[in-house]
Design brief:
The complex is a heterodimer of chains A (359) and B (373).
Chain A: H1 2-12, H2 16-28, H3 32-45, H4 50-62, H5 66-79, H6 84-96, H7 100-113, H8 119-135, H9 139-146, H10 149-152, H11 157-167, H12 182-196, H13 200-213, H14 220-231, H15 233-246, H16 251-263, H17 267-280, H18 285-297, H19 301-314, H20 319-331, H21 335-358
Helix pairs in contact in A: 2-3, 3-4, 4-5, 4-6, 5-6, 6-7, 7-8, 8-9, 8-11, 9-11, 11-12, 12-13, 13-14, 14-15, 15-16, 16-17, 16-18, 17-18, 18-19, 19-20, 20-21
Chain B: H1 3-15, H2 27-42, H3 46-59, H4 64-76, H5 80-93, H6 98-110, H7 114-127, H8 133-149, H9 153-165, H10 171-181, H11 196-210, H12 214-223, H13 225-228, H14 234-244, H15 248-261, H16 266-278, H17 282-295, H18 300-312, H19 316-329, H20 334-346, H21 350-372
Helix pairs in contact in B: 2-3, 3-4, 4-5, 5-6, 6-7, 6-8, 7-8, 8-9, 8-10, 9-10, 10-11, 11-12, 11-14, 12-14, 14-15, 15-16, 16-17, 16-18, 17-18, 18-19, 19-20, 20-21
Classes of the chains: A mainly alpha (359), B mainly alpha (373).
Chain lengths: 359, 373
């Protein structure tokens, strides 16, 4: 009787291996819908089958069924937490379902783990990471990605718009850029790209064009000011002041003006802008950094150190802050503290160099 | 080998069921699994922990602690459907399920069971179970998003502002504030991409309002006018920002402008009605508030303003009727009870007036307590 029951069940129950084999065959034959069905059946029989989860997630993504792809990839990464491509595919799915915070986290994790030579996937993942960094107002990090060698060869229209949004410090995805001002973003991207390539002539031409075409748009004078600050700081400061007329609460413009005054050893001039920047953005490490530098420069060492410490607490991995703090500690005769910060700066610098190498 | 075990082993091979758990049926094995599950969890072996807790609840379906652990483990892996099922089981089984309600509601948000989520958030908040700051932040934020989706913008704003004043900030909070400010009954993952810029700008201004920086809020809100002067709700929002800085004449102009853009904007009508009432123009106030109540019969400020206007016009019986409607719509509004007390007083209904005054005092005290917390 038992033998009969076993035989009956064998007839009724699909065999995992054969379903998995069929799934692979129809997948190879590009019969995607059938493959999806078969992978689902195989995964019902063996829920933890990693290869099946990976292929099912990929196929669902290819079919643009992003919520399904996301759910499958969540199961995949739970069972395979070291799989970079899994996290990237999950992040790409979450990007499509507009779960942007999770998408960014997972893309970054996947990229950090490595994608094993998948060039196209790597490029897509970095692009999505960059646009999401912009969406989360992490403009400088976004620009760093988009200006990296990875995008140097193929900085197409899509990349230029993304770069433009980051350069104009507007937290918009390319799809969210208003149609009437799309050109403005492209030109800003071109200018930022030329600027980064040290083609100052081209950058200045493009930025002048932007200033003429869009004099009242936030971000334009800021970008132009950034360029001018290098070679003609007085004009750079003037552009930053114009930015403040267009966008009175702009923090970055204040920080740039204050930083320039600090560079020129005009701490008294820097102080009001730096103080305003801190008041506007009490959590911004750059604001505390420049205020700290201005205070140290104006002779108020104790207050300066307090601000630099605040900058360090806000951005413990910023080597510039560590260096400024080390110098302030040395000036105050606090050698041990200065040595510690200088060592930390060296460590961070070395990590930055490694990270740049891997990007 | 025991006969039954042989059959089971054979069936397991055929069914592809290779999990050892299916053979563990005794109480002894349950305790062992429970112990191993806890150890796996503590050691950060989450996949093992999930498998073991799943085995545990399969062996002992009434094991509430197991369901709780399973739910939280799935939640941590963003596997919300599985987490929802486990937490719902826990809520059914546990003597005190209140702490799980917030987490269950968060799962239901992710699985798009929005009505259930709102219900569980409401129940969770009413029971005030102990919760980590992280859970409070995430739960109140998502609850606010669901209120926005339901069009309850003012209630959502109260929750979001409270988060902002507790020091939470960031683009996601501002985005939610922007949706509420522009009265867009959508979730952040749902609204059209072309609305992103106005939502972002409105959110920045709303954040400044929440932080009680009216000047900065005004500046930020005016940035919206550059490209979105004719966008619905922009002038209404600017009007509310101006009201916050006590510029009622300028605010009234913005509400008027909003009415030109959105002729059936009930909230703008109510604001204008209140403005007229403040200027002693009760007839104009009444007309506007009545229009608003016709458009949105469930709009309690419209009924309240109508009631107040009628009292000012010495039409006490009509005013009382409107205020009673307002009270039924919003029994927690202290201001409604205050107005109603005045109305009853005028009608010579002293006992009713005393009752409303007492309710007013009680609600005000509760508001003060909340504010001080």
């Amino acid at each position: 009787m038992i033998a009969a029951l076993v035989f009956f069940l064998a007839m009724q129950t699909p065999d995992f291996d054969s379903v998995a084999r069929q799934a692979a065959e129809v997948r190879d034959a590009s019969r995607t819908d059938e493959a999806i069905e078969l992978y689902r059946r195989a995964l019902e029989l063996r829920p933890g089958w990693k290869e099946g989860l990976w292929f099912l997630g990929s196929l669902e993504y290819d079919r643009e069924r992003f919520p399904e792809a996301r759910d499958v990839m969540r199961r995949f990464v739970a069972s395979e937490p070291d799989a970079g491509p899994g996290f990237v595919l999950l992040g790409m799915s979450e990007f499509q379902t507009r779960e942007y915070a999770r998408a960014l986290t997972h893309l970054q994790r996947g990229l950090a783990q490595g994608l094993g030579g998948r060039e196209e996937m790597t490029r897509s993942a970095w692009y999505l990471t960059a646009v999401l960094l912009t969406r989360f107002e992490r403009f400088d990090e976004s620009m760093e990605v988009l200006l990296s060698p990875r995008f140097r060869e193929r900085r197409d229209a899509r990349v230029m718009e993304a770069l433009g949004a980051a350069a104009l410090r507007m937290p918009l995805l390319p799809a969210e850029i208003p149609a009437a001002r799309r050109e403005m973003f492209s030109i800003a991207g071109e200018a930022a790209s030329a600027f980064a390539a040290r083609d100052d002539v081209k950058a200045a031409t493009l930025l002048r064009q932007l200033v003429e075409q869009y004099p009242d748009e936030p971000g334009i004078h800021l970008l132009y000011g950034d360029l001018l600050m290098k070679s003609r700081p007085e004009e750079g400061i003037e552009q930053m002041r114009r930015e403040l007329e267009v966008a009175p609460d702009n923090i970055h413009a204040r920080i740039q003006i204050a930083s320039e005054y600090v560079r020129e050893d005009k701490s008294e001039n820097a102080l009001p802008f730096a103080r305003q920047a801190v008041a506007l953005a009490p959590g911004a490490s750059d604001a505390h950094l420049v205020l700290g530098q201005a205070l140290v420069g104006s002779g108020d060492l104790a207050a300066g150190i307090r601000e630099l410490e605040a900058a360090r607490d806000a951005a413990p991995k910023d080597s510039r802050v560590r260096w400024a703090l080390a110098r302030a500690y040395f000036a105050a005769g606090r050698k041990a503290d200065g040595d510690r910060e200088a060592a930390e700066m060296e460590r961070l610098k070395s990590a930055e160099r490694k990270s740049e190498g891997s990007r | 080998m025991h006969g039954a075990a042989v059959v089971f082993a054979a069936l397991s091979v055929l069914l592809g069921a290779k999990e050892p758990s299916q053979t563990r049926q005794s109480a002894g094995s349950f305790l062992q699994i429970a112990k191993q599950a806890a150890q796996a969890r503590e050691a950060g072996r989450l996949a093992d922990a999930i498998r073991l807790y799943s085995d545990g609840v399969r062996l002992r379906p009434a094991w509430d602690e197991g369901w709780w652990s399973l739910g939280t483990l799935y939640y941590d892996e963003d596997r919300f459907e599985e987490a929802r099922r486990a937490l719902a089981r826990f809520v059914q089984l546990a003597e005190n399920p209140a702490p799980a309600l917030g987490l269950l509601a968060l799962c239901e948000y992710e699985t798009r069971e929005y009505d259930l989520a709102v219900g569980h958030f409401t129940e969770w908040a009413a029971k005030k179970p102990p919760a980590s700051n992280e859970l409070l932040t995430v739960a109140y934020f998502h609850w606010a998003l669901l209120l926005i989706r339901k069009g309850e913008f003012e209630r959502a704003t109260v929750l979001l502002n409270a988060r902002a004043r507790l020091g939470n900030s960031g683009p996601e909070l501002e985005e939610a504030m922007g949706l509420a400010a522009l009265r867009m009954a959508r979730l952040p993952e749902e609204y059209p991409p072309e609305e992103r810029e106005p939502v972002w700008l409105a959110g920045r201004a709303a954040m400044q309002t929440a932080l009680q920086r009216p000047e900065r809020a005004d500046q930020e809100a005016r940035m919206l006018l550059r490209h979105y002067d004719a966008h619905p709700n922009v002038h209404y929002f600017l009007g509310t920002v101006l009201l916050d800085s006590h510029q009622s004449d300028a605010a009234a102009k913005q509400f008027e402008r909003e009415r030109q853009i959105s002729p059936r904007h009930a909230a703008a009508m109510v604001q204008l009605a209140m403005f007229h009432l403040g200027n002693g123009e009760a007839a104009q106030a009444l007309e506007l508030a009545r229009k608003a109540a016709d458009i949105e019969p469930g709009n309690f400020p419209a009924h309240k303003t109508m009631g107040d206007a009628l009292l000012q016009l010495e039409r006490y019986a009509d005013g009382t009727r409107e205020l009673e409607i307002a009270r039924n719509l919003a029994p927690e509004s202290a201001a409604v009870h205050f107005s109603l007390a005045r109305a009853y007083q005028q009608m010579g209904r002293d006992a009713d007036a005393a009752r409303e005054r007492a309710l007013f005092t009680k609600l005000k005290e509760r508001e003060r307590e909340r504010t001080s917390k």
